[in-house]
Amino acid sequence: MKVHKRTKNSRIRGARTVGWGFRQKHKGHGNKGGFGKAGTGKRADHKKQSAEMSVKGKYFGKQGATSRGTALTKYEKINLYAIKDNLFTKEGCKIDLNKHKILGTGDGFKAEITALSATASAISKMEKAGGKIILPVKKESVKQYAVKEKVEKKVEVKDEE
Question: How far is CA 3 from each of CA 6, 12, 13, rounded to the nearest angstrom?
């Protein structure tokens, strides 16, 4: 007795890939990434929207290069006028700003400020007003390797007569 065999087409009905594996492989649209705005990554340069460009000003991704050794600033910055307005209470007081760099915008005043670093203008303004900025003492840098000095040997030649 002969058994009726289903056609391949009936077996594939309802399947997304229809025997072609990955869904995108047999769309017939090349490498564009799909329909609509699908695949509009940085490499699909042909689908940029003018609205996106005007809002953010840049087209996706990261711009510019920074070297590996580029260190982020490890301190906060504060101006003299901000210290005077917010932290200065009386003449001769001590202000502790160990994690800050003092910038020179503003007038100096009579106080002792302990800071991580300071600009030359900030230091001079504070000294003119009678105050001072105390900075940490820098340690001498340690060399990673020892340099051997060459020792020259003196050879004395005796003349025999």
Answer: 10, 20, 21
**Structural domain containing residue 101:** 89-134
Which residues, other chains included, contact 117 with Cβ-Cβ below 8 Å and sequence gap of 6+? Answer: 75, 101, 102, 135
C-alpha 101/C-alpha 78 separation (Å) is 6
Per the structure, the count of domains in the chain is 1
Q: Rounded to the nearest 5°, which phi and psi values hold at 129? A: -85, -10
Q: Is residue 109 part of a domain?
A: yes
Tokens for 15? 């399947």
C-alpha triplet 99, 107, 92: angle, nearest 5°: 70
**What distance, in Å, lies between the first and last C-alpha atoms of the chain?**
132
Q: pLDDT tens across 95-141, in order?
A: 999 999 999 999 999 999 999 999 999 999 999 999 999 999 888 87
Rounded to whole angstroms, how far apart are CA atoms 98 and 118? 11
